[in-house]
Design goal:
Largest sheet of chain B: 5 strands, mixed
CATH class of chain B: Alpha Beta
Oligomer: heterodimer
Distance between the termini of chain B: 16 Å
Number of domains of chain B: 1
Distance between the termini of chain A: 21 Å
CATH topology of chain B: Mannitol-specific EII, Chain A
CATH architecture of chain B: 3-Layer(aba) Sandwich
Structural class of chain A: mainly alpha
CATH superfamily of one domain in chain A: Response regulator
Structural class of chain B: alpha/beta
Radius of gyration of chain A: 25 Å
Number of strands of chain B: 5
Shape of chain A: globular
Number of strands of chain A: 6
Strand order of the largest sheet of chain A: 2-1-3-4
Helix content of chain A: 55-70%
Order of helices and strands of chain A: EHEHEEHHHHHHHHHHHHHHHEEH
Shape of chain B: globular
CATH class of one domain in chain A: Alpha Beta
Order of helices and strands of chain B: HEHHEEEEHHH
Strand content of chain A: 5-15%
CATH topology of one domain in chain A: Rossmann fold
Strand content of chain B: 15-25%
Largest interface: A-B, 25 and 29 residues
Chain lengths: ~475, ~150
Amino acid sequence: MRFVAVTSCPTGIAHSEMAAEALEVAAREKGHEIHVEVQGAAGAPPLDPGLIADADAVIFAVDASVRDRDRFAGLPSVEVRTREAIDRAGEVVGRAAAAAAGTPRTAAAATAVAAPPEAAARQGETVRRWLMTGVSYMLPFVIGGGILIALAFVIGGAVPVTKVSLITDSGKFQFWGDVNVSFRVWLGAVFLLVGKTAFGMLVPILAGFIAYAMADRPGIAPGVVGGLLAVAVGAGFLGGLIAGLLAGWLVNQMKKVPLRGTLKRMMPILIYPIVGTLAVGLIMLLVVGRPVASANAHLTSWLNGLSGTNEVLLGLLLGAMMAFDMGGPVNKVAYFFGIAALDAGNFQIMAAVMAAGMTPPLGLALATVLRPRLYNQEEREAGEAAWIMGASFITEGAIPFAAADPLRVIPSLMVGSAATAALSFVFNATLRAPHGGIWVIGLIGHWPLYILAIAVGTVITAISVNSLKSLRRAEQPAAAGVTVGA
Amino acid sequence: MTTIEELTSPSLVSVSLGATDRRAAIEELARLLEIDGRVSDVPAYVEAVWAREQETGGTGMESGIAIPHAKSPAVVRPSVAFGRSEGGVDFGAEDGSSADLIFLIAAPEGADDLHVRVLSRLARRLIHEEFRTALREAGSPEAVYDVIRREVQL
């Protein structure tokens, strides 16, 4: 396996160095690779972000705080005091290996002892770690924003709160009394504004910290700006993933340019921020922006052509679209298709669209409850918040899961949402509001069956995603003849 | 770059420590540093070392090594004193074993960290069994000094 480690002690002279040496010796004896950063008086250089990205686990042997601990977010970790690492380094390394093997995210790492994993699998793990870092920084924005928006619906009513504009065109904030609504509605609108602002940062933070995981600090600015532009061109969180990976890659390429003297010193201060940000920005606008816009137009006209044909087919399609990118371009096409139908007096389409937007977070919340061991601590907590977001038709609650493991999560979500939307049509459910989830239940026609449709999709999503995830885990140990445990 | 020769000398080595408890062992080694003029205020320096011992629960390792150490303004020049104890001294090792190889490290306060590389090298070598065995087998302060010098320069 590959480990990274940080050792530190208050004086930074003796114990941090001894722990470092002990870990290096013990890891090497067991045939592992290890890179240690001693955060001591000698001022050893920080670990290369690439090494962190490639690592299966991190060992903290520390008596003092760890500098820039965030770099290791998402990595399985073992934390001990320096003396434990010095006295029983072998045991500590063994625990790190177990942590790496026992964590679903790094199931692949377990194979490294027996046989070097395929380059492709290693590559996949590395990308996953980058994504996980981005997700882990994004999560507070998703949970904070999502729960605040749900609270806004509860406090002020889902429909009224969205009709209040709290900030005038000239940028003036409207206090209660400035707007002609009840206090509850005004307060709900305040919650909504704060929650939506948090949501506005979701994609930029995701992109920024994916780039950070790849290229360290210089990645953040190009990543965040790329993420903002992904939002601006309507590319959603998938656009954000692209922006983050692109920014990280570009900065890493720039780091390879051999430079000397003044130019070299200027790289971090001037060149990365200016050239990196501009390059990412141009690509997002010119290469990503255009196709997204034209795909939008095509999808919309295609959907329009389909309406009035087979309802079940339309439901399947709308449902899958809602779940594909959760607030991204494809989702928006489906959602606005629902809104347009609502305006035209067709309430069935809106009902199907909303139901399909509720099952992704609900299904993932259920999935974390059914098979908690497939998810890390962060995801399980995100799962709890996802119940509330799903119930409130805040599809973004699923993004942390989808961004961390898109290839397994997104198809699962699409299947569940497609089933739900189709069932909603079959049950003839209707909805006379454009959002609100469970909070607009009074505006839903055939609501008991509507809830049944949502429940069915939730269960399908949960089972699909857990199956795909455990399939992946089962493959890995089998290949190396190691049992990781289910 | 500070060399190991600047950090220690045969006169800073004792192959038969008289002290049997931790405090006394630290004081005994600290007095070696005073003789050489490396520490200006021994009681103040010992206090700093003692505080660090208390804070960490002891600097003893299960391998029989202890590294009491402190940064203190009472230190004039970065230095290392070494003491070997026949019966061993309790330095709070996790498993209760006593330390027979005791390195007392004195670092001056301040930004001059040139000695840190040598000290960290020394600390790292202590992980290796061969080094410890050599330290236990060396017959005289000069022999111990040679062992240390050889190891750190490897």
